[in-house]
Amino acid sequence: MSVDSSKKILIVDDEENILISLEYLLKAEGFDVAKAKNGKEAIDQFSTYRPHVILMDVMMPVMDGVEAAKAIRSLDADSQTSIIFLTAKGTTDDRRVGYLVGADDYVVKPFDNEIILNKIKELS
Amino acid sequence: MSYPVIIAISITYLAVLFITAYFTQNSKRLNFLFKDNSFIYAMSLVVYCTAWTFFGSVGRAASTGLGFLGVYLGPILLAPTWIFTLKKVIRISKYLRITSIADFVSSRYGKSTTFGILVSILGLIIVIPYISIQLKALEYAVSILHTGNTTLAHNSNVFTSPALWFAISFAIFAIIFGTSKMDPSEKHPGVVNVMALESLIKLFSFLIASLVIIYGVYNGIGDIFNQAYAKLEMSSITILQKDGLDYSTWLMVLLLSAFAFLFLPRQFHIAVVENNSVSHLKNASWITPLYLFLISLFVLPVAIAGKLMFGDSVEPDMYLLTLTMEYKWVGVLVLIGGLAAASGMIIISAISVSIMTSNNIFLPLLLKIEKQYKYFLSDLNTRLLQIRRVIIFLVLILSFGFYKGFSINYSIVSVGLISFAGIAQIAPAVILGLYWKNSTAKGALAGFCIGVLIWGYTLPIANLADLGILNPTIIENGPWGISWLNPTSLLGIKDFQPIVHGSMWSVLMNTITLIVVSLYTKRSALEVVQSDIFINPEKYYKSENPRKSIIVRQANFQEFKAVLISILGSKKLNWLLDGYFKSHGIQTEPEIADSELITYVEAHLAGAIGTSSANIVLNHLVEQQPVRASELISILDETYQVYEYSQLLQSKSDELLKTTEELKNANQQLQKIDQLKNEFISNVTHELRTPITSIRSLSAILQKYDVSDDEKKKFLSIINEESERISALVNQVLDLRKSEITNEIELDEVDLCSLIQTTIYGFDEMKGNRKIIMNCRELRIETDRKLLKQVLINLISNAIKFTSDENGIIEIDVDLNLYVEIQVKDNGIGISKEEQAFVFERFYQVKQENDTKTQGSGLGLAICKTHIENLGGKITMKSQLGQGTTFTIQLNTKIIK
Fold first, then answer.
1. What is B655-674 written as a DSSP string?
2. Is B689 close to A109, i.e. CB distance below 8 A?
3. Among B183, B212, B732, B867, which is least packed by CB within 10 angstroms?
């Protein structure tokens, strides 16, 4: 499937450097990118930016990724937004929680750039 | 009959006794014949029939009819049980070489010397009145024969009193044949044979005399009864009611006589100590009752005949003699019979009491003073024999004295019964001792003492009061007017004959006390060992092997030998030792006498001087070690085993509980540590992943895409930064690890102010526009330079982190109060109250205002804490949000200047 340049990706992480790398990566692949530093900002951005995909870190201050995902899902139930969790943790429990709140996929840090790109493309 | 004739008869009779004793003892052939003879054994038991039987029964029958029979019925009824009970007693006594009833009791209750002494004293107290009534009967008999009068002539001159001379002759006989040598078995075969002979003489003369009376003086029993019907009240004779002779008295007499037959010192001696074989018991159990039956057969007719002829003008005890006065030769026969009856009892009693008291009273006493008077112990053998001779003599003289003093007023039977009741106080201890393993020495002693006290109060004392020797009002109103303490009706229980009343109370309280006290006291180790032998003798006498020593003892062999020679004589001891050494294959005399040898010798020693004395002698010699647990357990009965085990288990389980508690705590600690470790690992890996993520991603981007130069620079710088972050983290982890596992500190003399100054200089670049001030006082301390510097670095960098570039002021103060105090103050953003508790924890990072993660590992303060603690100090923090933070280090270090 060809890349849709109008595809909007919201990346959420409290690490500045990760945001920088992801931003460059996605933009280089022709995606539109918005950033958020925590769960709260993510919800706000979701409402205004209306991304297609959200790359969500789990461990964040103010509001963590799981809470944010829950909120986003409840905000827009039939939204077509996909959520991919990005986290350093990798235990099955977290994955379960993740899926329970409606995540579509789960990626463990440190990630392979290509894997993320593939997952994003698949979700389109 | 003139005195010379009487004297001649008596001397002849005594000569016969002496000769019989001598020959049967020393002639090997005769000895053998007599030794294995159950008939002789059975006859010897009948020493039980004394002048009481010979004279007294008739007297009793005259007033109470068949009431006299009680004292014979008791043993007769009990005879069938001898093959069980008496057999057991004999077996035990043989095994332990018991020498007297006192020895038996003392041995059962842990070889108790006290008990031995008390029982011996009781035996002594009882025997004296008993012997005195024998002497009284003899004197009566002689007097009647001599004067032909039926009343007793009062002899004020002691030295012409026949009783005295009889007493002396019997004493001499007893001394010659009873104390000729120390025999470990305490057997006196000559004496036993004489006893048997005398029993035959008693029976023979009584029967002849009775027959003469019945068919000579009267015309048969029918004639006697017919005349009696006519003259007297029949009810008083044949039926049991008279003088309150009711069922209770019958029963009590039965019981007392059954006890007395076995427990009187002379009876025990004859039945147990002198017994040669338990097989004799079978015959004895019917021969002896038969004898008792025969000797009672004509008592009633004679009594009635006597009453018919003399009424109350003659002492009923003497009917046998007075009725046959016409037939002079019968009179002689009666005298001889009486002599036989009296002398048997006196001789055996004297001998048995002398053995008992010498072994149980004098020997322990001797051994106590032996330490000061060592010469006593030399030739203990002879000394003991001497003591016994003195005792025999004393006993007889005292008995004579007693007779002269009191017996005038006593009837034979009443004294006899009181003695029976006295010796019955041993019965609970013995019987329960044989069948109830938990009867303790304390219990038995307590019961015995209470029994004897009550007995003494209700019987002898009551009797003395009755006779007017003590104040009679004691009986009427009770002592000091306290009626329920009345010796004949304690607690108001009347309607009993004094003998019944006294016996009942004393034996009852005795038994109850024994049981109750035994339930509340414990047996000593020795008691346990001994009681097992008494309760389960089969375990011991049957075994081929010598008794294994349970109590570990040892003694210096030469000392051991020396003491034993003085008791047993060197010939006997060498024979003993040779036997032992040969059977153990020992060639030379050992240096130490071991447990087995000591036990072996103790057994033989006990035969010579009694178990408790043997025990005392050896205890003086040997070093006693604690009981060998493994061997003790092998003879312990269940309850004791359970008790001991339960004690053991209890203490083990307590230990176990403690250990479990400790293990639980340790486990909890370990779990905590494990948890911490896991947390640590996950924290560290988490911390590592984040920088690695950026590095990886950015590196891949740089490779894949055509990145602009500016971006390239940016990316590379990030990569650099993150790499350093990883590096710093790793270093800190290593630091923390190092500080935690090794408390190694390199102490050095440190100029505190210069150290701080140097550290501050290191922050020149990093501080930016902030100000770092130091207020220091000159101090040289002994501490680890590197660690302290690291702490300062961490604190200062934290302070820099949390203060603004423009206004940040960091102050380092040094002061000396009780401790060296270093304070690092900043005017930064401070830490909230909620977070203050966590700052020193590993990986804890305070949230910053802009909610970005700090560039730290969160380990800095944790490291400070560990370092300071290793240096023997304390680090604390005070902070207020928006105002600043102060860290205070307190060091407990040596100050050099």
1. HHHHHHHHHHHHHHHHHHHH
2. yes
3. B183
